[in-house]
Amino acid sequence: MEKSIKMSLATAREMYKSEFNSKSIKDWLLENFTEDELNPKELVKSWEDSFKGGVYINTNSFLLETNIITDKNEHKNIFRTKKEANAYGIVAAQLSQIVADANGDWIADWSNYNTQNKYCINYYRERLTIMTYYSTRCQFPMKSLEIAKACLDKHCDLWEQFYMIK
Known about the structure:
Blueprint: H1 9-17, H2 23-32, H3 35-38, H4 47-50, E1 54-57, E2 63-66, E3 78-79, H5 82-103, E4 118-124, E5 127-133, H6 145-154, H7 156-162
Helix pairs in contact: 5-7
């Protein structure tokens, strides 16, 4: 007498990865599922598994390359490239200070999308531009169009570095 077994892909994957299954079970699973189905590649790995070296910023704001991490839990400030380290590590910190000073005590209220405009400098269609947002977040919101224009005019070089145009 022959019987059919109905099995979900999730169950088959569990069985395939189990340390308790035998070669005959693995062979049977491979007759009914492909290797890729049973053992799919991860699209996104953990930070530790993704690490291939990169660039970090030391206490003197120098960009230093490394391929070795002695303690991955201690050193999470490593960017993949010098350009990214400069943009998101150094320039972002500078822009954060500049925008905070220009805004004074004002802090964007992202839940207040009906009445509070926020002005943000973005890189859009191959150029730096000021956009008005109500509820969509941006990195450095400003309280007025006047402040955003002045910030872009005075610190255009920093914005170009932040968006990695230069």
